[in-house]
Amino acid sequence: MEVVSLVNGCSGNTAGKVIICKAAVAWGPGEPLVIEQVRVDPPQKMEVRVKILFTSICHTDLSAWKGENESQRAYPRIFGHEAVGIVESVGEGVTEVAAGDHVIPLFNGECGVCRCCKNPNTNSCEKLGVDPTKSTMILDGKTRFTTADERRQPIYHFLNTSTFSEFTVLDSACVVKIDSEAPIKKMTLLSCGLSTGVGAAWNTANVEAGSTVAIFGLGAVGLAVAEGARARGASKIIGVDVNPQKSIIGKQLGITDFINPRDSDKPVHEKIMEITDGGVDYSFECVGNLEVLRTAFLSTYIGYGTTIMLGIHTSPKLLPLHPMELFSGRKVVASVFGGFKGRTQLPHFAKQCMEGVVKLDEFITHELPFDKINDAFQLLMDGKSLRCLLQI
């Protein structure tokens, strides 16, 4: 098979050829990512090869890179799932997108034919839903990445996307076409963080005008929840975080009250009950901590309060709830990708973002070249960034 190298800026017709390009390869848990040459195979049947333009890092990438869940440890691996790009070529049978289309990768795919995809009450997909343990393509169980040296060592995929690469191959169910007039750099946010948070407020909770909200953890997802609640007209949006700096950016994105648990000996849920005369209508747990989840649950109003869980829980411990507590009327639900069906609903959400329904600029706190990806990881670990865009 013909090979074309893009590492030194070479270009031309690449369809049907192996591409040699740059990628950030993880060789082991917690090890610095290495920018090196990789081979990217052409897309096979019902697959798409995408030229990634911008990618960013979220806490799911961080926890996977750290190796916090042993079942996810497949190395070498190309992480990354939040990005935007242009279709380079498509495989046999692909009709939804074509070369040149602007697309967003979807870590939570939508095949459109399984029982879940046909059900309007879920955005799960039986074939290409979220599966951090999956590390190969669904067609043949093989990878489309290999090392560029003579070993041709397989490099594993991540979350259906693997966006820390100049080119990546995805199942066609894991890409969605967006308007070519959309600000492509900002559209990176829609492939994970912004959609997850705003969608949790809009789709999972269905926050109403005048309702009250508490958000535990003001990272990018938590702040996106706040922005979604603000856009829906929530009367009170309480942000909870141990980082006092989050109160500043939080107030730009709808937070009306800020609580730092370290500033008082009084339990956070009691403070929230005081502020809201008995509890909030909706609480959102965006940390991935069981104690925080329980506090979020206790912060909702008895009878109808709903807690939406967005944080990733890597611990094997079970929910900190007694079954009888649910008889009070309070509920706990989880939200994946904000309840959005990616290929069906994301184009409309992108248009809403273009129209200014929700803010985008405030979420992009840093921009770095791709070869500074380890610096971007450090910014996230230090709590200094919401989203650091990496231009590839």
Identify the notable features of this structure and list them briefly.
392 residues; alpha/beta; Quinone Oxidoreductase, Chain A, domain 1; Rossmann fold; 2 domains; seven-stranded mixed β-sheet; six-stranded parallel β-sheet; globular; ADH-like_N; metal-binding
Task: Give the secondary structure arrangement, pairings included.
Elements (H helix, E strand, L loop, with lengths): L2 E3 L12 E8 L8 E7 L6 E10 L2 H8 L15 E9 L11 E4 L39 E3 L6 E2 L11 E5 L3 E3 L15 H12 L7 E5 L3 H12 L4 E5 L5 H7 L4 E3 L8 H9 L5 E4 L4 H9 L7 E4 L21 E4 L7 H13 L9 E6 L3 H9 L5 E5 L1
Parallel strand pairs: 1-2, 11-12, 11-14, 12-13, 14-15, 15-16, 17-18
Antiparallel strand pairs: 2-3, 3-7, 4-5, 4-9, 4-18, 5-6, 6-10, 7-8
Helix pairs in contact: 2-3
